[in-house]
């Protein structure tokens, strides 16, 4: 007469499995997710391949063992007047079997692991070398051979081997682009490297995955994979000094960049830097081609010039809709947007912000 | 002089000695049972504290762009959640059970060093208060329970300020204090278990909980020195101008990680082996059968203990170790999974062909097997190095640790509470409330922790205080938060059950479960001296033998 407990158990079990299945299905909805299973390069593909392999092995073991457990609970639950069970103390043959069988499963997984692991070394051949520097809390990309420096967006050609040297001079960060490659930590004093290849053009989210302090959650970047021709166009553009448009707002913004103190922390080739290889180092990201990027300050905000229309000139210059212009929000109150970052600036007037927005947009 | 002594002795005019008052009796006690209960109470208090921290974390993450906590507070809360649950809940809780149960199980009258036992407890008590006091001065630890250097340094190279405040000093000093307590406790367990066993209780007849406490004690003795060293080096770096972990001055941040994890991995077995022991006590009693494969269960625990010292760098697959080293640690991690699998099969072998008495303690023990299996499987997945590159430091790992620590240790601890509560109080916890709590725990835990697998696969890193709404992480996070609150309701049900039982609970005999081991062969709660006459042991189930002389183990089995 103890049946109701088990009927209840079954019902709960059904509710549970329906919920779990539903959550699995929901997970398929995350089409914007930086999913490790939505791979766009060989490194991530072989890492994801291993996942499917383990999933199959784990599912077999899971179903078998949980099945055995639940079956024995139902089968051997106490029934009225049941006699005392046989007092068995063990059985060496059975022990041997259930030591060896899991070992076989585990060693199959281990062989797959080691085989894939050694297969993931960087293939021979020409590579694009980029020095990746982890700051608190943004990423800098130094294309040493091409002589350019950028931030927040790592632009690479499709089909090319990208070789990264990972550097940090503060704390440990970790470089991760789920759709292209697993992570490697960026450890001060260690010369870690990694490589990946993007098979097709795309915009892939990258994240810092080693806890690196207050704004660890706001230290993202994107890998922008371009077809080789587009990449070459981009590269040529980036190698130029900053644009210098002649309209009043741009010029006013440019003057502010120096006079308001921005130039103390940010470099712009043509303004306070002679070239990207200039020995001067700055605390903040290089802004020479800021207008070609779409992220602000480690991705804490995304921005788009069309949200940041500016009207008027001189003292009438103003951002039309400050509420939707992320660049306005950032320049207005960088500490409010991302507490603890290094951009401690005086409060800028709305006119100054509008002029700086126009200038920064012009730096394509 | 004479009058004072006389007054103190017999309590003339109603004056009692401090140690005779109710409070004084607890504060001055060196009785292992009282200290065990104090450990358990203290640990349970910190379970509630850590639980509130967990709810804060889950509330912040319930929806994208959460506004409940700011970045700084979130980092403090998740750091203290991990630190509290590991060092102030699970460890003292398991020590508490060990304190209460081990001397009774081996037929001893107390621990070998009762005063050292009290010392260990009070260090935990004050160490816990010390760490929690950090909240009051506004500087709780904020760099994760793993406290990776150089983030935990005052400056982390290049003049960048990292953690200049007192935050990490609270952590490092607190850890040192708790380490002293653990060393004292472990020495005491080892000596007690080796020297105080009742006549006839050979090593091979000890209950499995005693075995696992012994292995755990050795793990603590051998692993804590490296944590202690690490914490002291960190304090020197912070305050004495050394640079052990600073790359710019010739130190190495990875030194911290090696030191920390060469403690940290044995530590996770320190958190689970006594839980294995509890389950190995509960399952046989409620299956009405002896444990299946005693020798294998005991020695697989020893094997896990040894192997746990060889796997530490599997927490560090992404730091850029040489491939050969990574292959070594993948292999050792695979090896440690084998004795763990053996245990699971032996537990199923124990209930197989038994007569399962479905009490709440048994529910939790069976739930433990089901949940721990999931934690084992996703743990094996994490040993698959290239896959680990993808999911380490994501919610996949959060899922894993919670399946083994919540689904494992916490389920076993509640099994232990329901099992030994009548021994400690002479009353039975309410079965109906216990079953409600169990289902809330089981469903809550799976809702909270299963979706975290998917979050990890979808690219959500750990330790992010916020996330945007466009990445497909919203639903899973909300489900996880709902699960966390179900668990919280389960805890409230337990608290109600506890209060209700103490006030109106059903009184029970000294042996309500018809159990097998010596702790039940005495009054509930036992007198200060435990046993009137020391029991004589002839098999692994001495109390079973006493109650069933015709089919006593020593007649039918050779051990």
Structural notes for this entry:
The complex is a heterodimer of chains A (364) and B (559). Chain A has helices spanning 3-27, 42-76, 92-119, 228-239, 248-259, 326-332, 334-337, 350-362, and strands at 127-135, 138-143, 148-151, 153-157, 161-168, 173-177, 181-186, 192-196, 202-208, 220-226, 295-296, 301-302, 310-311, 318-319. Chain A has 364 residues and is of the alpha+beta class. In chain A, the strands form 4 sheets. In chain A, strands 3-2-1-5-8 form a 5-stranded mixed β-sheet. In chain A, strands 4-10-9-6-7 form a 5-stranded mixed β-sheet. With 559 residues, chain B is an all-alpha fold. A two-stranded antiparallel ribbon of chain B has the order 1-2. In chain B, helix 3 (32-61) packs antiparallel against helix 4 (71-105). The longest helix of chain B has 35 residues, at 71-105. Chains A and B meet through helix 1, helix 2, helix 3, strand 7 and strand 9 of A and helix 4, helix 8, helix 9, helix 10 and helix 11 of B.
């Amino acid at each position: 007469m103890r049946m109701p407990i088990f009927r209840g158990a079954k019902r709960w079990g059904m509710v549970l499995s329906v919920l779990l299945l539903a959550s699995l299905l929901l997970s398929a909805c995350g089409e914007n997710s930086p999913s490790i299973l939505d791979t766009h390069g060989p490194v991530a593909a072989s890492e994801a391949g291993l996942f499917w392999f383990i999933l199959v092995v784990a599912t077999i073991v899971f179903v078998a063992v949980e099945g055995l457990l639940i079956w024995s609970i139902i089968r051997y639950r106490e029934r009225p007047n049941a006699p005392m069970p046989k007092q068995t103390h063990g059985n060496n043959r059975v022990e041997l079997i259930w030591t060896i069988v899991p070992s076989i499963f585990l060693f199959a997984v281990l062989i797959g692991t080691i085989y894939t692991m050694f297969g993931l070394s960087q293939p021979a051949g020409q590579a694009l070398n980029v020095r990746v520097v982890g700051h608190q809390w943004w990423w800098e990309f130094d294309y040493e051979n091409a002589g350019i420096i950028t931030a927040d967006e790592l632009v690479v050609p499709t089909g090319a081997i990208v070789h990264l040297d990972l550097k940090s001079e503060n704390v440990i960060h970790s470089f991760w682009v789920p759709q292209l490659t697993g992570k490697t930590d960026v450890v001060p004093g260690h010369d870690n490297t990694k490589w990946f290849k993007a098979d097709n053009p795309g915009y892939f989210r990258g994240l810092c995955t080693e806890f690196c302090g207050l704004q660890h959650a706001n230290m993202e970047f994107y890998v922008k994979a371009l077809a080789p021709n587009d990449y070459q166009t981009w590269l040529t553009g980036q190698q130029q000094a900053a644009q210098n448009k002649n309209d009043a707002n741009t010029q006013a913004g440019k003057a502010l960049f120096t006079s308001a103190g921005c130039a103390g922390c940010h470099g712009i080739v043509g303004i306070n830097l002679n070239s990207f290889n200039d020995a001067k180092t700055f605390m903040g990201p290089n802004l020479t081609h800021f207008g070609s990027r779409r992220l602000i300050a480690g991705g804490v905000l995304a921005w788009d010039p069309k949200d940041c229309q500016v009207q008027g000139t001189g003292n009438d210059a103003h951002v039309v809709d400050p509420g939707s212009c992320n660049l306005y929000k950032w320049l207005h109150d960088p500490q409010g947007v991302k507490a603890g970052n290094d951009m401690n600036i005086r409060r800028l007037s709305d006119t100054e912000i509008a002029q700086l927005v126009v200038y920064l947009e012009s730096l394509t | 002089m004479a009058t004072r002594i006389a007054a103190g002795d017999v309590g003339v005019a109603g004056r009692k000695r401090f140690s005779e008052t109710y409070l004084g009796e607890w504060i001055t006690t060196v009785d292992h049972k009282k200290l065990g209960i104090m450990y358990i109470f203290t640990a349970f208090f910190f379970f509630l504290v850590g639980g509130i921290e967990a709810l804060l974390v889950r509330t912040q993450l319930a929806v994208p762009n959460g506004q409940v906590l700011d970045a700084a507070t979130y980092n403090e809360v998740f750091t203290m959640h991990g630190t509290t649950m590991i060092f102030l809940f699970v460890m003292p809780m398991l020590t508490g059970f060990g304190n209460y149960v081990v001397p009774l199980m081996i037929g001893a009258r107390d621990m070998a060093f009762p005063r050292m036992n009290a010392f260990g407890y009070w260090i935990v008590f004050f160490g816990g208060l010390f760490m929690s006091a950090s909240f009051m001065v506004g500087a709780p630890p904020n760099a994760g329970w793993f406290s990776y250097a150089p983030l935990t340094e005052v400056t982390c190279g290049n003049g960048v300020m990292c953690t200049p405040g007192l935050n990490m000093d609270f952590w490092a000093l607190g850890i040192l204090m708790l380490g002293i307590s653990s060393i004292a406790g472990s020495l005491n367990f080892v000596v007690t278990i080796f020297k105080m066993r009742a006549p006839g209780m050979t090593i091979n007849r000890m209950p499995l909980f005693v075995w696992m406490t012994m292995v755990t004690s050795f793990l603590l003795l051998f692993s804590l020195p490296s944590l202690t060293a690490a914490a002291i080096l960190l304090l020197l770096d912070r305050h004495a101008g050394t640079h052990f972990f600073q790359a710019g001055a010739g130190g190495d941040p990875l030194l911290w990680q090696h030191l920390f994890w060469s403690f940290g991995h044995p530590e996770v077995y320190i958190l689970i082996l006594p839980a294995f022991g509890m389950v190995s006590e509960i399952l046989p009693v409620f299956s009405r059968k002896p444990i299946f494969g005693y020798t294998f269960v005991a020695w697989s625990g020893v094997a896990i203990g040894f192997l746990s010292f060889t796997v530490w760098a599997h927490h560090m697959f992404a730091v850029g170790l040489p491939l050969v080293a990574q292959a070594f640690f993948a292999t050792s991690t695979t090896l440690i999974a084998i004795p763990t699998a053996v245990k699971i099969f032996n537990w199923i072998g124990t209930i197989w062909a038994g007569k399962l008495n479905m009490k709440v303690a048994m529910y939790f023990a069976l739930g433990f097997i089901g949940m721990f299996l999931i934690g084992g499987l996703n743990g094996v997945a994490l040993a698959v190095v290239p896959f680990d590159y993808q999911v380490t430091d994501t919610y996949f790992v959060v899922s894993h640790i919670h399946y083994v620590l919540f689904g494992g240790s916490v389920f076993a601890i509640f099994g232990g509470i329901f099992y030994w509560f009548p021994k400690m109080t002479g009353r039975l916890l309410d079965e109906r409330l216990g079953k409600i709590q169990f289902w809330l725990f089981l469903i809550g835990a799976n809702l909270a922790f299963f979706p975290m697998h998917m979050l990890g696969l979808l690219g959500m890193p750990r330790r992010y205080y916020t996330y945007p709404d466009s990445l497909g992480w919203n639903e899973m996070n909300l489900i996880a938060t709902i699960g966390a609150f179900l668990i919280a309701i389960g805890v409230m049900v337990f608290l109600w059950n506890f209060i209700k039982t103490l006030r109106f609970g059903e009184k029970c005999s000294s042996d309500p479960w018809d159990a097998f081991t010596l702790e039940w062969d005495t009054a509930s709660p036992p007198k200060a001296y435990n046993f009137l006459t020391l029991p004589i042991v002839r098999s692994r189930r001495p109390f079973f033998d006493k109650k069933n002389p015709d089919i006593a183990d020593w007649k039918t089995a050779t051990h």
